[in-house]
Each structure stands twice: as structure tokens, then as C-alpha cells.
What does this fold into?
Amino acid sequence: MNKEIVLVVGASSGIGKQAAIQLANDYTVIAIARRTAELDKLQEFGIIPEVFDVVKLDSIAEFVKSTAKEFGKIKSLVYCAGVQNVKPLRMLKIDEAKELFDVNYFGALFFAKAFSSKMVYAKNNPSITFISSIAGNKPEEGILNYSASKAAIDNLTKGLAKEIVSIRTNAIAPSFLKTNMTNQFNHIYTNEFIEKVEKDYPLGIGNTKNIANMVEFLISDKASYVTGEIIKVDGGASL
It folds into this structure.
């Protein structure tokens, strides 16, 4: 029996990579990233690599449609693509702010739009899962643009659950995690910062598996009555 198909967008590293690997145990996973090299290691898990840059907003609809035509209708869309810039407002440039929203929000919006076509999504409990952040509800200085993009994802999640009722739509809001994305800012997320966060979070700093586990649940039949939710997986960080 053929496995159901799951599309994981932003699968090159971090949460997306871990989600793709775990989901590959039970589904046919199509992993999306913008560079071939980032996808090569995933093939050993039986994952199908597809190269696509999510900022090509005008091309998303045709890409998703052709993917469904080639591999079959898609059960679930998992949107993990995301970028972050850590800068005070006075140093934030327009192009940087726009690029971040293109990846974090507009890419998610137009992948969801493309997935909502009846020609694309499978009828058996289809779902969309976004990766948000607790920063969407708790903005901090230096990441205001990032926080705003995640707040937009939260709003989109709730809106889609109302507008496209045939597709369950949820988001996961992690707390701070050590990933390739946050590792780019070692001058900010120093060892002292990590130690403080580890102490401040009741369950300490989590890992990408914690988030991927929730992805697995949300696309499964066990979550068939869950939609429009922003689910915190944060080790108690937002308490």
C-alpha cells in the first residue's frame, strides 16, 4: 500500500530536517529546500528531495501543482522555512525586513493557497502545520520584525481554519532552540545567554525532536478534531 504524501518546506536543517526524517517512517516525504546540497543527506532516509526557493512567490502555485501531479495528492503541508535577523530597529534595513517576511510569512501564505486546491490535497484528513514561535506573542527587542512575522503566521493559522474548513490548519510555537539559524548569532546567543535560558525555562532548552514530535501528532488522525490552534511547545518558557 502506498504511503500518504507529506510536503515539508524548509527541510534543509533544524526543525524542518528533523520533521522530515521522523515523518519518513510513516509517510512519503517530499523535502523542499533552495539548494541541492542541503537535501542530499536526506535521501538516505528515503526522502524525496525537491529544490525550490520559497521567495519565488509567483512560482509556488505551479510548483505545488506539478509536485502533486508527479507524486500524487498531498496529505499534509508542513511549512518550516524561516529566517531571523537580530538587529535593533535603528539598524534594520527595508530589504532585510521584506526578505524575512517573504520567507516567514508570504511563502507560508502562498504555499497554503496552492495546497488548498482540490487538485492538490488528499481527502483523508488533510492538514497544514506552520512553525511559529512564542516570539509571535512575546516580542523582544532586536527581533521585532521576526516576532511580527510569527504573529502574522498565528493570525493566518486561525483565519485559514475558518476559511478552508476542509483542511485542518495549526501552528507550533517553540521557545528558543539551538539550531543552525540561532547559531548564526553566536555573538548574541552567547554561552552566558544559553546558561540563563536553560535555568529560566522550567524544562530547560528543548530540541528539534520535541517540535517534530508535535508535527507528527498534528498531521495524524489522532489530531483530526484539532484546527486553528497555536500550540506552544516551549518547556514552560512562556509561563
